[in-house]
Specification:
The complex is a heterotrimer of chains A (263), B (298) and C (357). Chain A is mostly helical and 263 residues long. Chain A contains eleven helices and no strands. Chain B has 298 residues and is mainly α. In chain B, helix 7 packs across helix 9 and helix 14 packs antiparallel against helix 15. Classes of the chains: A mainly alpha (263), B mainly alpha (298), C alpha+beta (357).
């Protein structure tokens, strides 16, 4: 690898991680000022864990993210299966297009549209509408991830199972599902973090009754830099890093498996 | 097997119809309505009990006033132009940074590559809000960047970056870099290395190999990355809101403030329709036709 | 059901399969007896794999009937058919170990019975104690055996094999051919094997069916197809052959006289086609072309190639037609038929065959 390549990689990663590292470092700052290092301290984590409103918001976010990711995973996997296996059914391209919309649409538009729907139908805004909004957001991503895996699947494996006497349900349960499981799991994790991360759509879809963690953080961030938020951010970044490492481990396992299937 | 499989589409299709298609139509309808101090805060509201009379009076009350307001008011025109300008400039910067980075990733030893990809993905999955917030502490006048530069003696008074378009550009570039790098990398890593070797064997210098072989073949990745960055950046809210000044008007922020601050739902809807018509739909269609062109040309 | 002796194990009648405008399998009729080893031979794209998939039930024929032991298979999904297939890619489940793959077709057996069956099957393919190996740790030959054991687990009446040896190295392939043949004899299962390798088909099959562009053009044992091909396609598929264009000058029962560019030749001509005056092809294998000093057609040796156990010569006839002659190499110096030698050909009418043009 060339020197130029190494330098590019180094600078690129420094750019990506520098701000995050600064944020993490100052979460351990004893001083309340972000530019002055006042020694190592975990006092802001203490403040954080005493902040009932923030913890309540975090709990709301977790519950919403779990429910939304579960719904999105179910529907997204169904959609991927229908697109991969259903042949050319009427409305197929419209269906595929609708899946794609929430992925490319600016979040403000998705949020506004969903809010107008909820108001128009008289649906009380709260946890339920948040879950609906985030499930809609994640659905397309899961359909894409699972769809890619299905496309790469060696179809003779399923034919072999049928040939050996397995009916369609047994083929799905014993061959198809185990082989796409890594993609389904990775999709679930992505939908989970998308929901956990979202501020814009949640601000529209949540009523006054529900405040998610990003909404709570945003209202504090608007007031300026604050070491307590650094502490909260550090925990979030750490959590997400673990999830991503888990997901890439899952997809690495999946990759090895698919190699065997075609080899 | 095909018939039962397509039945699986029914539930997700109903879900998408209810929560993507219908809401989009509602936005369109409300963009043609007038604001009102009522609940819901817009007029007309379809009176189902009035039958056909209700329908006709409902349709007659719809008009294009909101769009006339948007196009006639310099404030909204500026917001639209500023959105396009900032998103376009940021896309260009991203292409300039992302291409060498993706190239270096694709050329790095195979066993490093999963790690490098994971390293690019981690920020992509990390809270957008937090990553934007991180820049406040760096860019503000008493922030880290000014402090370091002052200490080094490179500047003699704190930088006024936060609250300017430059800060928004930094934020956009930072937040969207993974969206540019990952599609580029995905294309570059699949390029047949023997093509580069053939070019080098025919006497091309490394720079010429990059310009004449790698970059043209990586164009689909560049196009995908640009689309993935440009469209959401035009509608971006968090970055201009936190890093930009009060004069940084981007369409996403205008929509937000019309909705939440001014409670003008019809005008916010009109901004959404305008954004869709100006940016999202043309670009998505362009990309679709671009992909089919490529298939026929090659 | 079955066992009456007269009912074929596998019976195809007028089977046709179209994909859009292209016909993959055209009007194929075929009856296989129990215990027969049958090879479908043809170049890639001739429809032989599609025919296999029709029998296995992955595709439905547009026309025709497929019967196994007299039972019509129409509408029966793959998992209800008394046939099993071994895929060219083997299609071994990567998420199951060897035992898990082999036992997949035996879900109704108790745990103990299943373990015993898996052990028996592994012994049959000489892979004792491989039960708990992961598929990715197996060599190509071992995977082939696991796939075979898995396909045999349900004791199918007919086993379909799609290029079962295609992924193996040359040496391993020849060794495996012998084992496959012996296994089939021992089990008495009807094998239908698809291959594009004529040598493999001739080495293994009781009967060979040659397919060309969706049609089953000739069925017979290896010797019949080699000695008495029905078409130019079959003649050249099974080995090197001289195909001499000409016209039928006269017919006399099973014999014909063909006027070629270098004179009239007598040839075997079963059937009535092509008739007198029609264009025809005369086929003769190079090893049946004799060199002599008699009164046969005259030519000149233009090329001599020493191939070890055989010597091949290229001969230019007076009209410019090029023929190949092949004969056992005998140490003989100087070579009486070297390059440039004027010779006369000795063409045995029994070895010459009249074919359609």
């Amino acid at each position: 690898m060339s020197h130029f390549g190494r330098i590019t990689l180094g600078l690129g990663l420094a750019f990506l991680y520098g701000p995050i590292l600064v944020l993490v470092a100052f979460s351990f700052n004893a001083s309340a000022l972000v530019t002055v290092w006042g020694g190592f301290s975990t006092r802001w984590y203490g403040v954080l864990f005493a902040d009932g409103a923030l913890l309540a918001a975090a709990l709301v976010s977790l519950r919403v993210a779990l429910a939304a990711a579960a719904l999105a995973t179910l529907f997204g996997t169904l959609a991927a299966l229908a697109l991969d296996r259903g042949g050319r059914f009427p409305g197929r391209s419209a269906f595929a297009g609708l899946l794609y919309v929430p992925m490319v649409m600016p979040e403000v538009i998705t949020g506004l549209a969903l809010l107008l729907l909820f108001v128009g139908t008289g649906l009380e805004r709260g946890l339920v509408t948040l879950v609906v909004a985030h499930a809609t957001l994640g659905l397309g991503f899961i359909a894409v991830i699972v769809g890619a895996r299905l496309k790469g699947l060696d179809h003779t494996l399923e034919e072999a199972a049928a040939d050996l006497g397995a009916g369609p349900l047994r083929v799905f349960a014993t061959v198809t599902l185990p082989l796409i499981a890594p993609a389904v799991a990775a999709g679930f994790l992505l939908a989970f973090t998308l929901s956990l991360d979202d501020l814009v759509i949640a601000s529209f879809a949540a009523g006054p009754g529900a405040t998610t963690l990003p909404m709570r953080l945003y209202s504090q961030v608007r007031l300026g830099v604050n070491p307590e938020i650094n502490a909260a951010s550090t925990l979030l970044v750490g959590g997400v890093t673990l999830i991503v490492l888990g997901a890439s481990w899952l997809s690495a396992c999946g990759g090895i498996r698919s190699d065997v299937g075609t080899g | 097997m095909k018939r039962p499989a397509r039945l699986l589409a029914v539930v997700p299709a109903l879900w998408l119809a209810a929560f993507v298609l219908v809401p989009a139509l509602i936005v369109l309808k409300i963009s043609l309505s007038a604001a009102a101090t009522a609940q819901p805060p817009y007029l007309p509201v379809l009176d189902w009990s009035a039958g056909p009379v209700g329908w006709s009076s409902f349709l007659e009350a719809l008009d294009f006033t909101n769009f006339e307001t948007l196009l006639g008011d310099a404030l909204y025109r500026d917001a639209a132009l500023q959105s396009l300008w900032l998103a376009g400039l940021a896309t260009l910067i991203l292409a300039l940074i992302g291409t060498p980075l993706a190239h270096a990733m694709a050329r790095s030893p195979k066993r490093w590559q999963p790690l490098l990809v994971a390293l690019v993905i981690v920020p992509f999955w990390t809270s957008f809000l937090i990553r934007t917030y991180a820049w406040i502490a760096i860019l503000k006048p008493e922030g880290l960047l000014s402090a370091v530069l002052l200490r080094l003696g490179l500047i003699d008074r704190p930088l006024e970056i936060l609250g300017t378009q430059a800060a928004v550009l930094v934020g956009l570039t930072y937040a969207y870099l993974p969206f540019m790098v990952l599609p580029l990398y995905a294309v570059m890593v699949r390029l047949d290395p023997s093509l580069r070797e053939a070019a080098a064997d025919l006497g091309a210098s490394p720079i010429r190999v990059f310009w004449s072989v790698t970059l043209p073949l990586a164009r689909p990745g560049l196009a995908a990355g640009a689309l993935l960055c440009f469209v959401p950046m035009v509608g971006e809210f968090i970055i201009p809101d936190l890093l930009g000044g009060s004069d940084t008007l981007m369409l996403g922020r205008v929509l937000w403030s019309e909705f939440f601050s001014n409670r003008d739902w019809p005008l916010a809807s009109a901004v959404a329709i305008l954004m869709l018509a100006l940016v999202v739909v043309p670009l998505v269609l362009l990309r679709e036709s671009g992909t089919s062109d490529r298939d026929t040309v090659r | 059901m079955g066992g009456t002796g007269s009912t074929p194990r596998l019976d195809l009648t007028g089977v046709t399969k179209r994909f859009g405008d292209s016909v993959a399998v055209a009007d194929v009729s075929l009856a296989l007896a129990a215990g027969e080893f049958f090879c479908l031979l043809g170049p890639s794209g001739c429809g032989k794999s599609t025919l296999l998939r029709l029998v296995a039930g992955f595709e439905a024929p547009n026309l025709g009937v497929i019967r196994v032991d007299g039972q019509d298979m129409a509408g029966l999904p793959p998992h209800r058919r008394p046939v099993n297939i071994m895929f060219q890619s083997y299609a071994l489940f990567p998420h199951k170990d060897v035992a898990g793959n082999i036992a997949y077709g035996l879900p109704d057996l108790g745990r103990a019975d299943r373990t015993g069956r898996v052990r028996d099957l592994l012994a049959r393919v000489r892979l004792e104690n491989f039960e708990n190996r992961r598929i990715e740790t197996l060599s190509g030959g071992q995977r082939q055996r696991v796939a075979l054991a898995r396909a045999l687990a349900r004791e199918p009446g007919v086993l379909l094999l799609d290029e079962p040896l295609g992924a193996l190295d040359r040496g391993l392939r020849e060794e495996t051919q012998g084992e496959l043949r012996a296994l089939q004899r021992r089990l008495g299962i009807t094998f239908v094997m698809v291959t594009h390798d004529p040598g493999e088909a001739m080495a293994l099959a009781d009967r060979i069916g040659v397919m060309d562009r969706g049609r089953l053009v000739q069925v017979g044992d290896a010797a019949t197809l080699y000695e008495r091909p029905a078409t130019r396609f079959v003649a050249s598929l099974l080995g090197d052959v001289n195909l001499i264009p000409g016209r039928v000058a006269g017919r006399d029962g099973d014999w014909a006289v063909v006027q070629t560019g270098f004179g009239p030749l007598r040839a075997r001509a079963p059937g009535t086609m092509p008739g007198e005056g029609e264009a025809a092809t005369l086929a003769i294998r190079p090893e049946r072309v004799g060199l002599g000093a008699g009164t046969g057609p005259a030519g000149t040796v233009t090329e001599v190639t020493f191939l070890g156990e055989r010597i091949r010569r290229r001969i230019r006839m007076e009209d410019g037609t090029l023929l190949r002659a092949s004969m056992p190499a005998v140490a003989q110096a100087p070579d009486p038929h070297g390059v440039g030698a004027a010779i006369r050909l000795d063409l045995d009418p029994e070895a010459c065959r009249l074919l359609p043009a």
